[in-house]
């Protein structure tokens, strides 16, 4: 099974620690790396453009904003998902985030279970897609018998 690789952009160490633990234990998601600023996040996601499946981004960061991270990653691969996780999930922020390329927006105080469910669904989708790709490869390249 392919590992579901996640990058977290969060400037609060306690929130980061709790989120990483919940993602690992409940959603079986591996957090590969994290950062606390817009510039670090944008640079990491660009440098590793083919090596992540999900970015979970806080709105307010130590430097910059999550909206800036979303804007910097608009040209990602279709299978790469970005979600905004914030205490300020107002209708305006939700609309703006989606306009900048967010696949979903979750409120930290009321929608963490929804975020974890989203991650579980994405993990299952990746596994299913990987299985279909393997099956296509087997069917298009049958083994030769000697």
Automatic annotation (TrEMBL):
The keyword Cytoplasm does not apply. Transmembrane segments: none annotated. Residues 5-123 form the Response regulatory domain. Keywords: Phosphoprotein. The modification 4-aspartylphosphate is found at residue 58. This is Response regulator receiver protein. InterPro entries: CheY-like_superfamily, Sig_transdc_resp-reg_receiver. PROSITE patterns: RESPONSE_REGULATORY (PS50110). It comes from Polaromonas naphthalenivorans (strain CJ2). Signal peptide: none annotated. SUPFAM superfamilies: CheY-like (SSF52172). One of its GO terms (biological process) is phosphorelay signal transduction system. It holds the Pfam family Response_reg.
